[in-house]
């Protein structure tokens, strides 16, 4: 597996990371045994970066990763790097009630995550959304103290805008910014990516398949459970969905000509944007993982990149990437 450096100060990680969210939350039911098998298969294939959030299934995802790490061969477990997001506040009924980036909360979140994961340190630690009531310097400063004490190795950011990235980086070394980036979510190209590149900060890109929308497997008649994020996501609704799936069909022609899959084209396109960008793929099953890993062998020539951008021009998607209330939490969209 090819490895890359996560920013100037971050760890070396596999060129593709595994995002584990869907194994516990937001995409409907997941199979626990298959989830653990998928994590094991990823580690076996050389994937070293596992991404989670303490709020994915209210601790469920961290406990799942902990279980998978404990039952993996020692050599694989030792190579694994776990990136954890914190800060989202949940209700017992699964509701969301804001973010908390106060230093005491940061220490509290970390203490619980270490226990649930069953590890003595977290490799990359980041607040999931910038808390508008707490200066980023205070949140990042609290993580920096955890780094000093050995509980955290690297500081990351998530969905932060360019100005916040600068302020965070002036406080302590930042390894990477985790943010949505795909053929149909290219907002970071304007200000954020130039800023992270100037500062030597890596990108861990999520939603590279736009949550399955541009994977080539999503169909208009798919029934989604009420708790499935996609049941409320603007891009998956009615006319927007039909429009967006037409873009996928245009991509499918390019994929077919090249003898690869749509998902592989979408992941390979993100990989082609630069070595500083590490896609986190949200595979929940081994077959999806195998497909995603195949993207690492796909090289896109200039003419193919041009054809892809013609098939899916910037801004071509219908609908925002989050429902309105959640868009309001995105510092990156201000
Ligand atoms: N920082 C943040 O704010 C943030 C937000 C969201 C996610 N994340 C992180 O990023 C990770 C990835 O995000 P994501 O899951 O939304 O992105 P994604 O990779 O765009 O979407 C994953 C979904 O795509 C579908 N899919 C179809 N073919 C696939 C293939 N070959 N490989 C992988 N998935 C395939 C799967 O749905 P089916 O299984 O239903 O087919 C899967 O649930 C998450 O697990 C999480 O760790 C971070």
Automatic annotation (TrEMBL):
Q: Which Gene3D superfamilies match?
A: NADP-dependent oxidoreductase domain (3.20.20.100)
Q: Taxonomically, which superkingdom?
A: Bacteria
Q: Which InterPro entries match?
A: Aldo-Keto_reductase (IPR050791), NAD(P)_OxRdtase_dom_sf (IPR036812), NADP_OxRdtase_dom (IPR023210)
Q: Which residues form the NADP-dependent oxidoreductase domain?
A: 16-311
Q: GO CC terms for this protein?
A: cytoplasm
Q: Which GO terms describe its molecular function?
A: oxidoreductase activity
Q: Which UniProt keywords apply?
A: Oxidoreductase
- Residue ranges of coiled coil: none
Q: What is this protein called?
A: Aldo/keto reductase
Q: Which organism is it from?
A: Streptomyces poonensis
Taxonomic lineage: Bacteria, Bacillati, Actinomycetota, Actinomycetes, Kitasatosporales
């Amino acid at each position: 597996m090819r490895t890359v450096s996560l920013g100037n100060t971050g760890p070396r990680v596999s060129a593709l990371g595994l995002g584990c969210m869907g194994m516990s939350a937001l995409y409907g039911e997941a199979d626990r045994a298959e989830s653990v098998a998928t994590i094991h298969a990823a580690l076996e294939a050389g994937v070293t970066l596992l991404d989670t959030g303490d709020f994915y299934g209210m601790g469920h995802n961290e406990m799942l990763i902990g279980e998978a790490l404990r039952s993996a061969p020692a050599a694989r477990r030792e190579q694994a790097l776990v990136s954890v997001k914190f800060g989202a506040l949940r209700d017992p009924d699964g509701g969301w009630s804001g973010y908390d980036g106060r230093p005491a909360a940061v220490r509290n979140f970390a203490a619980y995550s270490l226990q649930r994961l069953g590890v003595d340190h977290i490799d990359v630690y980041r607040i999931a959304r910038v808390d508008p009531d707490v200066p980023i310097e205070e949140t990042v400063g609290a993580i920096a103290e955890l780094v000093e004490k050995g509980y955290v190795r690297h500081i990351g950011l998530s969905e932060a805008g360019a100005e916040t990235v600068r302020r965070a980086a002036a406080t302590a070394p930042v390894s990477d910014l985790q943010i949505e980036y795909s053929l149909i979510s290219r907002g970071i190209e304007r200000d954020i990516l130039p800023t992270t590149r100037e500062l030597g900060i890596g990108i861990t890109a999520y939603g590279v398949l736009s949550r399955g929308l541009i994977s080539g497997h999503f169909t208009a008649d798919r029934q989604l459970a009420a708790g499935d994020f996609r049941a409320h996501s603007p891009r998956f609704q009615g006319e927007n969905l039909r429009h967006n799936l037409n873009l996928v069909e245009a991509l499918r022609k390019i994929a077919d000509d090249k003898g690869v899959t749509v998902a592989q084209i979408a992941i390979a396109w993100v990989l082609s944007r630069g070595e500083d960008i590490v896609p986190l793929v949200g595979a929940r099953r081994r077959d999806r993982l195998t497909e995603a890993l195949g993207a690492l062998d796909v090289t896109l020539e200039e003419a193919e990149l041009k054809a892809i951008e013609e098939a899916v021009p910037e801004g071509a998607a219908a609908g925002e990437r989050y429902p309105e209330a959640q868009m309001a939490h995105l510092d990156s969209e201000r």
